[in-house]
Structure formats: structure tokens, C-alpha cells
Amino acid sequence: MDVSWEEFGWERLGDGVGRRRLPGWDATAALVAGERSLLLCDTGSTLREGAELRAQAEALFGRRVTHIALTHPHFDHVLGTAAFAGAEVYGAVGIERALRGDELRSDAVSHGVPAGEAAEAVDLLVLPHHAVSGEWTLDLGGRQVLLANVGPGHSGHDLVVLVPAAGGAPEIVFCGDLVEESGEPQAGPDAVPSRWPSALDRLLSLGGEGAVYVPGHGAVVDAGFVRTQRDRLAARFGVS
């Protein structure tokens, strides 16, 4: 199942698993391939970026993306979703409320997305078909992937994706923006600081000490990094 990730600017993380650090905001988009299905974790900041991810996924695996997991409802992770016609979309329960109205569009524009592109992406945005309230196992064919609602924390609707260990590679956890490596974790108006440390406790309990943790922004980290960030967030927000 191995493919040539590097020529497309992707980082290979395991057999059939890789991620790309998208330009602009350094947001992670990730692919997990099974024998029948192809899962994309987050879709980029515009329809143009989503279309580029779709084309790269099809070039890498010779088939279309069938499943999408949205880690949280911020523009740089969701606005490319409409580029994936027919894909089944998953998100934390309640995420659809954060994906409606003008707030998503104005947030994108305030961060530098051209107004026309932001408006088009929001108008066409595909809301999740499946709401994850606890844990949800996806069978991709020869590979099962766990979607876990561990939030709130960074946002009101934080979902993580766990790829079990296989072929000698460790478990891989796509953390969304619950974990950030390339900068200080961002706490916007929809963050729930009092719950963020416990969300990271839950993430660590699912992934374990030997897992590879992939932040929403930045380089791959280990459990020690996540635990340190958890403790810093607890001190920053005055919670245990």
C-alpha cells in the first residue's frame, strides 16, 4: 500500500498513512488508506485547496476519497469539504451549528482568505452526515480507524482520529488543534479552556505512550510533548 508521498509534498507516517502541512496556516491534512476506502482528515481552507487535496489523493491511490473526518469547525480545516463529492463526512456531535452563518466566512476573510473564495466555500460547505458523540469505528477494508470525540477544548467540537499500529509502525493519532507544535495553542472565542486539559488526558489515554501524535499545526510529536502542553494549558487557564 506504500506510495510516493514526497513528490506531492506529503509526509509518510506509515503504510498507507500520510499527511500534508498545508501552506498559509500550516494546517495538517491527512490520508488513511484501506483496501476499499480512503479517509481524509480535514480538507483545507478553500475549495481550491480541497480540490488540490482531492487530486493528490486520487493520484496517490488511484481512487477517490470516500470518508472525511473534520477535527473541529475552524475555516482552515473545513472549507475544502465541498470539493469531495459523495464522501461521507464525520464530525463531533453539534459541529454543524458552528459551520452555519457568517461567522465562519468572516473568520476566514479576517485571516486572509479572499472574500469571494470564503463566501463560495461557506455557501457550498457540506455539513457532516454522521455525528460522533463518543467513539466511532470506521472499517476502511483491512484497516479500522477510530474516531473519538474527546472535546470540548480547542473548540466546542474536537474530534481525533486514531490509526492502530500496523506493520511495525506505532499507533498514529491525528489530534486536530487540541495539539499544536509550530506555535502556542490558540484559544479563540469558541474554546473551552476549563475542559482542554481533560481532553488531552483523554487523547493520551487513547493513544498511549508509544503513539505518534500529529498536531493540527506543526511537526509530529510524542506523548511527552502532549503531556507538557497539557500541563502548560492547565497552568495558563488555571485548571487542574
Write the layout of secondary structure elements.
Layout: E1 11-14, E2 17-21, E3 28-33, E4 38-41, H1 47-61, E5 67-69, H2 75-78, E6 88-92, H3 95-98, H4 102-110, H5 115-124, E7 130-132, E8 135-139, E9 144-149, E10 159-163, E11 172-174, H6 196-207, E12 212-214, H7 223-237
Parallel strand pairs: 4-5, 5-6, 6-7, 11-12
Antiparallel strand pairs: 1-2, 2-3, 3-4, 8-9, 9-10, 10-11
Structure explained in plain terms:
- With 240 residues, the protein is α/β, with parallel strands linked by helices.
- It has one domain: Ribonuclease Z/Hydroxyacylglutathione hydrolase-like (Metallo-beta-lactamase, Chain A, 4-Layer Sandwich).
- It has seven helices and twelve strands.
- The protein has a seven-stranded mixed β-sheet, covered by helices on one side. It has a five-stranded mixed β-sheet with strand order 8-9-10-11-12, with helices on one face.
- A hairpin with a 4-residue loop joins strand 3 and strand 4.
- Helix 4 packs antiparallel against helix 5 and helix 6 packs antiparallel against helix 7.
- The longest helix has 15 residues.
- It is globular.
- The termini are far apart.
- The relative contact order is 0.14.
